[in-house]
Amino acid sequence: MSNNNDTIAAVATASGRGGIGIIRISGPNTKQISEKLLGGQIPARQACFKSFKEQDNTVIDSGLALFFQSPASYTGEDTLELQGHGGPVVLDMLLKRVLALGARLAEPGEFTQRAFLNNKLDLAQAEAVADIIDAGTAAAAISAQRSLQGAFSQHINELQQQLTHLRLYVESAIDFSDEEIDFLAGDELQQIINKLKQAFATLTETAKQGSLLRDGMTVVLAGKPNAGKSSLLNALAKRDTAIVTEVAGTTRDVLREQIQIDGMPVHIIDTAGLRETSDIIEQEGVKRAKQAILAADQVLLVVDDREAGSEEHLTLLKDIPPAIPITIVFNKVDITGAKIEEVKSSDGQTIIKLSAKHGDGLNLLTQHLKELMGFNPEEKNIFLARRRHLDALARSNDFLNDGIEQLLSYQAGEMFAEDLRLAQNALSEITGKMTPDDLLGEIFSSFCIGK
Ligand code: GDP
User: Fold this and answer.
1) Distance 316 CA to ligand 1 centre (A)
2) Contact (Cβ atoms closer than 8 angstroms) between residue 113 and residue 353
3) What is the pTM of this model?
């Protein structure tokens, strides 16, 4: 990505036609561009109605101009926002003019990257900006907002302080080790360690909930043709996404639908029925079904309850790696008259009996999916987290545990100090203080342009 010496510009509003279109400019040339485009300086933080002009004074558009003086701006640099009409052609003309005046086109996420580099936001907060924009449910948006406000970062900083405290405690204990007092065996050390372990456990649990709100779970519907997979998808989505017919093999491609269960996004994938077929298109569908199954958090094997007695359906899934959990759904109990219930098979597999067509027993299924993921919608104050955060937390926790082992079992104070340092480094990756450049590049490039 760029250095900070140049001035960047981009359309910040979504492409297409809209009431208002915004162009954002940030960097050292902003004032100069503003002067030429608007015909003079404008005061900071005051909306000014202006004409946006070509070099020959032709008016390209007119609207509000807002100037933010460095460092009091989103990026920390001089920033100008031009709020004109939201048409693609007019915005393109305006952007060209701004570029001609000495800005260059911003890369995706570059405004936020500059905010991060200028210490306006830490990395977890910067990611929260993208997560607010990408939020798939209201609960995810609210949690991302909490992360942006710094809730997650604050917990990380508190953990860092506790780690520092432990480090100082042990280092001073080692310094005084000639004396008779055995600091390392004392209650106080144990208390500090217990408190720290508890803090890690609590934060990991909240972050896990946040990550579920962001990424949700992927559920694949599999089973023989006509078992009722498409009907189940429609029932869960509460609309007719998939074609339901009595003709076997209607769903030939993989259909995706996102639903939410108490705010957790659930990506449901309806697959072509798994069966041997000579139809080339359907064969491709079966191949894609098998691929989708490999990427699933959970497979729902849908079986017509009239065939529940036959073990045929179990053989269908013999290709599925054992690591991917399967729930069996016996569907169409309205025909067989079987009870709507959740039971366990003799080998411990969950079986849910329901009727997709009538929507009976769906709540058992949604409850089951929540439990599978450990999702707890009662948990308040969740902040949005990403898998990379969970990963860094887990690594940090592992270093801490290793360190404690070194200390308590082998009295290896120096090894302990080194482990604590590594634990702190892993935590710093979350807030961006110790994040490798290529990872930073990857994070920001997944943003939209103009953010
Ligand atoms: P798929 O091939 O597995 O996707 O199955 P569909 O969802 O297309 O359903 C096949 C047929 O079974 C359709 O005629 C559905 O109306 C019917 N069906 C699906 N679920 C139920 C159910 O719960 N009860 C009854 N009576 N019929 C169902």
Assistant:
1) 19
2) no
3) 0.82
